[in-house]
Design goal:
Elements (H helix, E strand, L loop, with lengths): L1 E6 L2 E5 L4 E5 L11 E11 L2 E3 L7 E11 L3 E7 L4 E7 L2 E11 L1
Antiparallel strand pairs: 1-2, 1-4, 3-9, 4-5, 4-6, 6-9, 7-8
Protein name: Large ribosomal subunit protein bL21
Organism: Nocardioides currus
GO molecular function, one term: structural constituent of ribosome
């Protein structure tokens, strides 16, 4: 059994026991070890696919902590003008573990 959940503007396929990274959550309100519920888009249980009437369906996750993504280097360069710019970015994520999928 697995589900497709929405977190922010992204959707991810999850099963019980999976550890995933979602966009950064406010960890002051949600401490490490607390649980959250993510909205469900679709549930697949064997041959049964449920995509409608999922108002009561939820995926419960446990917060494991804050992580960072890989470093991305952005470089801009204009020929013959002497313009060059170097910039870096590192996305912040919250790492969560899926504990339950309920219909």
């Amino acid at each position: 059994m697995y589900a497709v959940v929405r977190s922010g503007s992204k959707q991810q396929k999850v099963a019980v026991g999976d550890v995933i990274e979602i966009d950064k959550m406010d960890l002051k309100a949600n401490t490490v070890g607390s649980t959250l519920t993510l909205p469900v888009v679709m549930v697949v249980d064997g041959e049964t696919v449920t995509a409608t009437g999922l108002d009561k369906a939820a995926v419960t996750v446990e917060i494991l902590g804050a992580t960072k993504g890989p470093k991305i280097v952005i470089q801009k360069y204009k020929n013959k003008t002497g313009y060059k710019k170097r910039q870096g970015h590192r996305q912040k994520y919250t790492q969560v573990k899926v504990t339950d999928i309920s219909l």
